[in-house]
Amino acid sequence: MHAEERERLIIEAMGPTGFVSYRALESRLAASPATIRRDLSRLEDEGVIHRVRGGARLTESHGGKPDGGARLAGTPFAQSITENLAQKRSIGRAAAELCQHGEGIMIDGGTTTLQMCPHIDGLDLSVLTNSLHIANALLPQTGTQILLPSGTLFREQNIILAPAGEESMPRFHAPKLFMGAAAVGPQGVMQQDVILVAAERRLIDRAEQVILLVDSSKFTSSSGAIVCGLNEVDVVVTDRGVEPRAIAMLEHAGAEVIIADA
């Protein structure tokens, strides 16, 4: 593959977010890491991209977003929080029942995982979260220790994300990770933004058990960037609207399915 073709593929891989991780480029391009670095250096010299920790992003002059205006693909938090709210509340309550007193957990940002917060008060948990919404909900809980990573604040989601780099995360390992998804299908758990995928993979790597919190509407679509396969999910908490075929799909992959009470 010629350098011009690789450079075109690099820019295409950035998509609407204007960012691509090194890991994604290595899987997309038939080239060595050294060759990819040289390609990125040329694009940076030409003013097309900026190399950042964990990957590269388009410059504003080539369609990239300004640093202060970072956005994620997908439904804004303010809109998503109102969708299927009753189901999300029941899922959050059921998920909180899986927590043990005094343990450390990770809660990935999302409108469903947020619903756990009122129900973990009094458990004296240590909680690592990338969500300012979740951190704010936990602040009144005097017994709950809150840990936040460093990174870029995406205002529409009120979430802190870094494309890559262990330095952005506190040294933290947890028995349980609670996370949401944009969609769940036979291909696996999906999100609509590659930056979310990179961040969630780092959380998965730090957890002993992955617990997925998704309302039943998430099983109607299977498009997006894959975060993990269904075989990497230990428990799925959903609502009574989930179809039997979705339950069968999850159980076939080895996941325990918990149906939250209304």
Distance N terminus to C terminus? 55 Å
* CATH architecture annotation name of the largest domain: 3-Layer(aba) Sandwich
> Based on helices, strands and strand pairing, what is the structural class?
alpha/beta
Percent helix, as a range, is 25-40%
Low-confidence stretches: none
Q: What is the count of structural domains?
A: 2
- Beta content comes to 15-25%
Quote the CATH topology of the largest domain: Rossmann fold
| Largest beta-sheet details | 7 strands, parallel
Number of strands: 15
The overall pLDDT average reads 86
Task: Explain how this protein is built.
By secondary structure, this protein is α/β, with parallel strands linked by helices. The protein has two domains: 3-69, Orthogonal Bundle (Arc Repressor Mutant, subunit A), CATH 1.10.10; 77-259, Rossmann fold, CATH 3.40.50.1360. 29% of the residues lie in helices and 23% in strands. It has eight helices and 15 strands. It has helices spanning 3-14, 22-28, 33-45, 77-80, 85-96, 132-138, 194-205, 244-252, and strands spanning 19-21, 49-52, 55-58, 104-107, 126-129, 145-147, 152-154, 159-161, 174-179, 183-185, 188-191, 207-213, 225-228, 235-238, 256-259. The chain has a seven-stranded parallel β-sheet, sandwiched between helices. α1 crosses α3. The longest helix has 13 residues, at 33-45. It is globular, with a radius of gyration of 19 Å. The termini are far apart. The model has no long low-confidence stretch (mean pLDDT 86).
